[in-house]
Amino acid sequence: MSDIQFSFVFPIPSKTVYTTDKLEKMFFSVLNQNTPPQHIFLLDGSPDNLLGDRLFHLAETKNIFCEIVPAQSQFLSAFAFTLSKIQTKHFIFTDNEKSPVYFNKSASDLYRWVCLRNPQTGLFYSDYDRISPDGSRVEVHLLPFHKSRVRDNMDFGNVFVIDTAMAREVGGFSSIFPRGYLYDFRLKIATDHDFLLISNRFQGVPYSVEDLGKAHNVFDYLLSGKDVQLEMEQIITDHLKRIQAYLPPGNCRHEITYSPEEEKQFEECIASVIIPVNNRPQFIGTAIESVLQQTVEQVEVIVVINGGEDDPTIDVVKTYQRGGEKFNPDLAPVRLLVHDINNIGLCLNSGLKTARGKFYVQLDSDDRLKPDAVEKLLQVFKSDPHIGMVIGSYEVWQLEEDGKFFRREDIPVVTHDEWTEENGRNNLLRINGAGAPRSAHIKVLAEMGWFSVNDIPYSRNYGEDYEMVLKISERYRIGRVWQPIYEVVRHSGGTDHSIDRQTIDRNDNAKDEMRREAILRRQTLNSKKIS
Prior knowledge:
By secondary structure, the chain is α/β, with parallel strands linked by helices. The chain has helices at residues 20-31, 50-61, 75-85, 107-117, 164-169, 181-192, 226-242, 260-265, 281-292, 313-318, 344-354, 373-383, 424-427, 442-447, 464-473, 501-530, and strands spanning 6-12, 39-44, 66-70, 90-94, 101-103, 123-126, 128-131, 137-140, 159-163, 195-198, 207-210, 271-277, 299-305, 334-338, 359-362, 368-369, 387-399, 405-407, 438-441, 477-490.
């Protein structure tokens, strides 16, 4: 063990959200390691290096060699210089820009053992504790790495133990990506090297992070700037090219054709709106009525209930059928299917098998279509026979417990404009969604093998639509409606309301498995093209 030493790379941010006292506390946690670091590099972004000088003198009192690297305006250049100076096989990098990070005294001892046992690993990361504002601690258990975890929001924690030679091999932190340098760096390392997660059972974390008190928000990505999104897109695009999973523009674009006999079948019904639902009698009526108000008359509503014969939603749906008080023979027919297995893929596929329309239109039971939604979707389909799916844009509405219902003005119209004609299907592997509503040729859905039915690892009524978009985009164009044609309704009973960490991890696992399969498919497509 005597030959395993570490250099600590300790950034001093130019602007921090915490006090100088906390910065010193962080630095003391480095100095007070049971096995002191061989070398500390202070990447000092503070004005006039005042904080760097202060910490430098603290290191002197411990007889630990410390070097100040000015980083006021060029952090990435300072890191590149530091990487060239590191003499240890591994270095420890602390991402402390937004949150204080405190090491336990035995952290370096633990890191030495994992490096000794895993000499070929490029990067180590670990579970950690989150310190809440009230001082309590919450254990944060991270997901183990695999090479298909290519999304940009993957949580690797705030401390990384990195093989120095491998970091130099990939060029360190790229100055081309001032905001996404860590994302780019980990994808480059992951191309040829493994990562390793150090797990915690109980009180087994090497460091803690002070919580900023921000809850999980499924719309966080909307608030990041366009320049950040473009930077992240370039990073994933470069990575997919490295691993031969990139699909160039126009590649694998097939035409969708129908015989005259098939087209005649769709004269009375062109679109089937399928609504899977479980125990939501309070919402289903509004969803159905949003379909009945469509400007296109040749539509049908298929409600697929998966709560069994006792589901109270059934009674509400029947009021819109023949003999019901809300039935109107001049409006779209409302059909009803009932299952006693809560499986969204089963609902969708059952509805599709009985659908009379040419196109499937998605509608969640607590959401609403705008009156011209189907009309706008059909216009895009008619514009190009190579379009297999059309995805719209949506507004976010809020339903409060007291019945107040209002548009969320703090959330812009969700257009997913990170999707471009040239690169959308590649960029989709980086993010967790493509937009709503989704509409597709029913024959294309059949060609893709229908929606998954919780038969993908970790998938529990989640991600079946994401997988379908991935598949269709590999063979057909994806059309877009950029105007809002859908209303997502957030409420206390929604599946995206107050999501706990366990659910977030399970959902991320599911979509990462879908990414794994998508990357393999795309690599196969490219190998066939080469051969």
